[in-house]
Amino acid sequence: MADNESPYIEKIANPAGLGLLAFGMTTVLLSIHNLGLFALDSTILSMGIFYGGIAQVIAGIFEFKKGNTFGATAFTSYGLFWLTFVLIHAGNFNGSLGVPSEAFSLGAYFAIWGVLTLFLFIGTLKSSPRALQMVFLTLTILFFVVAIRQASGIAEIAYVAGVVGVLCGGTAMYTAFGEVLNEQYGRKILPLG
Q1: pLDDT for 63-73, tens place per residue?
Q2: CB 70, CB 103: distance < 8 Å
Q3: DSSP state, 38?
Q4: Handedness of CA 82, 85, 90, 91 (dihedral sign)
Q5: What H or E segment, with its residue span, contains residue 125?
Q6: pTM beyond cutoff 0.85
Q7: Please, what sign has the CA dihedral across residues 143, 16, 67, 129?
Q8: Domain ranges within the chain, ordered by starting residue
Q9: How far, in Å, CA of 7 to CA of 12, rounded?
């Protein structure tokens, strides 16, 4: 062994389980709000900051370390999505930032996230498991449904967003459970397709 070689091999755990759970659980919680079951409050915003936001950014950074450009881009982007989402809504609650100038600006915000997600969905078609493809497909639909709801002002569309969001977040959680349990047991416990 040369003097500059380390006798230790650094192994990085798969950060996808953390990233998918952070995304999925936060999305389900917000989607239950969209179904009209409770108000948008500090519960959702706190989850958005710490789990949906910070935990996904951490997962994205570790995907960079593993050399996974797709995972790094997705987790870091959606982690930062949650942080911007919380800032927009927290500013509305305390009046420090003011309400967005028009509904169209929020519609554009969600639509641009829909465009990013559509292209990431196309990326999943290369070699990703079907479960991950479903996450990105339902997320693409979700962003565009929410964009339409925000731009149109039609409140009933929020319910559709809630249904699609629960499906999307639930699929992300299932995919995370599969990633973690399949690795832990060294065999397929939950099929991912």
Answers
A1: 999 999 999 99
A2: no
A3: S
A4: positive
A5: none
A6: yes
A7: negative
A8: 16-185
A9: 16
